[in-house]
Amino acid sequence: MQRTAVVILNYNTISYLQQFLPSVLSYSGEAQIVVTDNASTDGSAAWLTENFPQVKLISLSRNEGFSRGYNLALGQLEADYYVLLNSDVEVTPGWLRPLIALMDREPGVAACQPKIRSFAEKGLFEYAGAAGGFLDKWGYPFCRGRIFTSPEADHGQYDDDCSIDWATGACMVVRARTFREAGGLDDAFFAHMEEIDLCWRLRNMGYRIMYCGKSTVFHVGGGTLSKVHPRKTYLNFRNGIVLLYKNLPQRQLVAVIFTRLVLDGLAACKMLLSDGPAHFLAVIRAHFSFYGNFSVWAKQRKTAQRISGGLNQEPRFRGSIVWQYFF
Q1: Which residues contact 146 (CB under 8 A, 6 or more apart)?
Q2: Residue of 236, 244, 247 whose CA lies nearest to 260
């Protein structure tokens, strides 16, 4: 059995594989390198087989999205640690060693992430993960080093190791045993915020999530779906509500969900004025998808609550990041 498997999920990103896979192979030590192809049509699988036969290729018959794609791939791998790595991430020499060392010395840690900096502006933290993810009281995600669209420059202020609410799916190390205990990623999320849901479930099971400031990678971002695409808006808003419904303590459920729906409505109105109707309609569709599939989410909440044994961890930040940032 492999100790560590680095698993890259690919969907029509042959250019990123060509650019970044060599550094993953060079800098990942003895880890097994795996590429899971989500039925790409750009020749990714054939190029990989021809140029990197030492990389294990798992080919899926259709685009299963981020969540199910990873679940299907990881179900075929035996390792102590899985590393979920985006195809548009540039790793650095020795990047994996501090992450695995942290997991080895902290058996109560289920998952961790490195420092995520921008590939385009390497002195800045990157949108997806930065220096560790948190949630506010209404379930809005933010990061140390990046609040909404405002990234900080890295001056060494986050070179520590610390407990966080969630680790980014752009580069996440997760203990294989606890990944299976938690039921893996939620297939219904398809993509976006599925790693936050997984980390919340893991925290509700009594595990910790950590940030490791001694490891750094660089992330392009938006490699598969642009940050300004309405589909991304839809998934983020729908999954954000589902995330809260599945994992919040019962005593907070009604008040937080109601407030979040109101805040989402205000955000949609702002998008209508600033960006036009496409993103406004994406938020509306997200809400109706939540209502229309409520029986599905109810079953998933029941399962999540059963797995946690009644332990419900609240977000660490008890204020409103929206209020503090904008007002």
Answers
A1: 125, 126, 127, 130, 152
A2: 244
Q: What tokens appear for 200 in the block?
A: 């919340």
Strand runs (DSSP E) across the chain, as ranges? 2-10, 32-37, 56-59, 79-86, 89-91, 109-118, 133-135, 141-143, 146-147, 150-151, 161-164, 171-175, 208-219
Instruction: Enter the DSSP assignment of 133.
Output: E
The DSSP secondary-structure symbol of 134 reads E
CA distance 154 to 159: 9
Give the DSSP letter of residue 75.
Answer: T
Q: How far apart are CA 289 and CA 99, in angstroms?
A: 37
Residue 296 backbone zone (phi > 0: left; psi -120 to 50: alpha; other: beta): alpha
Q: How do the pLDDT tens digits run along the chain, 327 residues long? A: 689 999 999 999 999 999 999 999 999 999 999 999 999 999 999 999 999 999 999 999 999 999 999 999 999 999 999 999 999 999 999 999 999 999 999 999 999 999 999 999 999 999 899 999 999 989 999 999 999 889 999 999 999 999 999 999 999 999 999 999 999 999 999 888 999 999 999 999 999 999 999 999 999 986 555 557 899 999 999 999 999 999 998 888 999 999 999 999 999 999 998 888 999 999 999 999 999 999 999 999 998 888 776 666 778 788 888 888 888
Residues 193 and 97: beta-carbon distance below 8 Å: no
What single DSSP character describes residue 307? H
Instruction: Identify the structural domains of the chain with CATH numbers, from first to last.
Output: 2-219 (3.90.550.10), 230-316+318-322 (no CATH)
Distance separating alpha carbons of residues 239 and 215, to the nearest angstrom: 29
